[in-house]
Design a protein that fits this description.
Radius of gyration: 17 Å
Distance between the termini: 52 Å
Oligomer: single chain
Strand order of the largest sheet: 1-2-3
Helix content: 55-70%
Length: about 110
Amino acid sequence: MLIRFCRGRGELDVHVGSRTRPSDLHELGLVLGLLNKQCEVKRWGIVDVWHAATVLESHMDLLKRALGGEVPDEVLMRGLAQVATSDRIAIREAEWEINKQLRSRWE
């Protein structure tokens, strides 16, 4: 399993993924929400390194089972794919709305 910590603009991001797919990392909160099979997946952030350590320690076995093997958990991967599709749709809608507003300003 891979864990990436990234600090910037006063935020701490923690991403996790399978070592067999190092470029395919996902937000820790999102992965845990999918693994805990929450009805509504909510993103939540990590406050600081202490918070990250606490969350990782309490969920390490679950994360290892899902991400530590040669083949990541299929249900998790499907959930992540659905979230990615939903995110792409939301981004396109936002881009369309921004472009529409910019066009109306220039006309």
